[in-house]
Amino acid sequence: MVKLETIISLAKRRGFVFQSSEIYGGLNGCWDFGQLGVEMLRNIKELWWRSMTYRKDIEGIDASILMHPRTWDASGHTSKFSDPMIDNKTSKARYRADNLIEDYIDTLKRKGKNDLAYEIETKLNSAEEPLDYYKIIIDYKIPDPISGTCDWTEVRNFNLMFKTFIGPVEDQSSVVYLRPESAQGIFVNFKNVLDSSRQKIPFGIAQIGKAFRNEINTKNFLFRTREFEQMEMQYFIKPGTEIEWFEYWKEERMKWFVNCGIKAERLNFKKHEKLAHYANYAIDIEYEFPFGWGEIEGIHSRTDFDLSNHQQFSGKKLEYFDAVTNERYIPYVIETSGGVTRSFMAFLCDAYDEEDIQNEDGKIEKRVVLRLHPLIAPITAAVFPLVNKEGMPEYAEKLFLDLQKIIRVRYDSSGAIGRRYRRQDEVGTPYCITVDGQTLQDNTVTVRDRDSMYQIRINADNLKQFFLEKLTGYTF
Ligand code: ATP
Questions:
Q1: Which domains, ranges and CATH numbers included, belong to the chain?
Q2: Residues with Cβ within 6 A of ligand 1?
Q3: DSSP 8-state secondary structure symbol assigned to residue 218
Q4: Is this model's pTM higher than 0.90 or not?
Q5: Could you identify the atom of ligand 1 that is nearest to the CA of residue 222?
C-alpha cells in the first residue's frame, strides 16, 4: 500500500494540496487546494450533488456558515460537542483521551495481547465522562507515546466549536460559532423547503459546505483538519420507517463510493458501538487509508431529535401534516454525513499506482499513475504536438481550443512524448491526444488510454463524440 508521505509529496509537487499559509510556517490543521486539487474537489462534489439532487425526492440548499447561536443549544453542540483532552506533563504533548486509548488498544492487538485489548475496549465503549477516560489511562498505565511516561494531567472536556463575534461589540450577547457541521443549516430550513417545494414525506435536503472544528490533534494530512468540507443529506421520514430507510441509504452511499471508482475491498461498514446523543442507529463507511481504517462517511438514524429540539428552542412548529392519513407528526431523519476533503484523500490514495514499464529507449522505468475515475480526474485530456514543427503545434493548439469548449483539457508541447505521457499519468489524466505527421495528411490523431496505455487512431472530427461517449452513461 502507498505510504502517506508519497501521497503528500505528490499532492504538493503537482499542485493538488498545499499547506495553508506555508510561507509563514503553515497553520496547523488547515490545507489549501491547488490548481489540480480544486478541480478534483469540485468533481467529487459534483458527482455527489448529481447523485443526491438529480432525483425526485431530494432538494439542495446552501445555508450560511454563521447561524443563530440558539441553533447550537438546540442541537446539543454547546453542551455536548466536546472531546476529552489530556496532557502529558513531561512531553507537554496534548491528546484526545479516547484516541490515546484507541491507539494503545491497536498496539496491544498488534502485539497479540487481544484479551487485554478487548478488556480496555469494552471500558472505552462505556466511557462517557472525563473521569471514565482518566481511570482507564491510569488503571492500565497507558504511556505517552513521546515521553513513555504516565505523568498525566486530569482529563478535561474541550468544546470543539470555534467562537467569534457578530457585529462590532465583543461581548457574550454577540457570540456566534463557525458551524461544526452543515446538518443544522438543513434542519432549520426544513419548514422553508417543505412549504416552498412540492415535496411530501419521505424527502431529503442536501447540502455541501464548509465546517470547522477546533480539533485537539490534527493528523494524517486531510483526515483530521480544523477546517474541512462536508456533503450531507437529511432524509425526512415517517417515524417507524427508520430501519428500512437506514438500510437503503447505507447501501446507496456505499454504492456511490464504488461507482466513483474506489476499490470495494478497501471499503467497509463499521457499526457504532457507542451512539452519539442524537442517534438510535449509526454506521460508518470506512476506507483503508495507508495508516489504517478510517471513517469517510457516517450514516445516522437521528430520530426526531433535531426537529423536536429546534421546535422547542425556537417555539416554531416543525410538524408535518400527512393529508392522506390525516396524521400530524415530527418527522424522523436518516442522515448521510460525508467528508468531501476526507473522501478526496481516500480517492487520491486509492487511485495511486506504480508500475514498471519499458520506455522508448527500451529501458525499464517506474510509471506513477493515478487511476482516478475519468469524471473525478482534474484534467480530462491533454493535447500534444509530437514535435514543435511542421504545422503540428498550430494544429494541436486549434484542437485544444476546440476541445476546451466541452472538457477540461491541457496543452503540452515540452519534452519527449514519453515524458509528457508520464506527467499526465501522474495527475490521473485519462486521455492523451497526440498530433503527428499523419494528422496533417488525414486529420487523424492518436488517443492514448491512461490505464492500458493502448493507443487508437481516430479522426479529429470524431473527438467530441468520443468524449461524449466516454464521459456519460455512468451511474452514481
Ligand atoms: P471523527 O470520529 O473522525 O471525529 P465524526 O464521527 O465526529 O468523526 P461526523 O461528525 O460524523 O464525524 O462528520 C461526518 C464526516 O465529516 C466524517 O465522516 C468525516 O468525513 C468528516 N469530518 C469530520 N470531522 C472532520 C475533520 N476534523 N477533518 C476532516 N473531515 C472531518
A1: 4-67+161-348 (3.30.930.10), 86-156 (3.30.40.230), 379-471 (3.40.50.800)
A2: 181, 213, 215, 224-225, 228, 230, 295-298, 337-339, 341-342
A3: -
A4: yes
A5: 29
Are 269 and 246 within 8 A, CB to CB? no
Residue of 72, 82, 182, 228 to test ligand 1 pocket, by largest number of atoms within 8 Å of CB: 228
The one-letter code for the residue type at 105 is I
Q: What pLDDT does 373 receive?
A: 98
Q: Which amino acid is at 382?
A: A
pLDDT at 360 over 90: no
Task: State the angle between helix axes of 392-403 and 463-471 in degrees (0 to 180), rounded to the nearest 10.
Answer: 40
Atom of ligand 1 nearest to the CA of 340: 20
The C-alpha atoms of residue 461 and residue 75 are separated, in whole angstroms, by 57
Q: Can you tell me which atom of ligand 1 is nearest the CA of 297?
A: 18
Which set of grid coordinates corresponds to residue 464?
467530441
- Encode pLDDT of 172-215 as tens digits: 899 999 999 999 999 999 999 999 999 999 999 999 999 999 99
Phi and psi at 346, nearest 5°, equal: -65, -40
Question: What is the distance in A from the centroid of ligand 1 to the CA of 138?
Answer: 28
Per residue in 407-448, pLDDT (tens digit) is 999 999 999 999 999 999 999 999 999 999 999 999 999 999
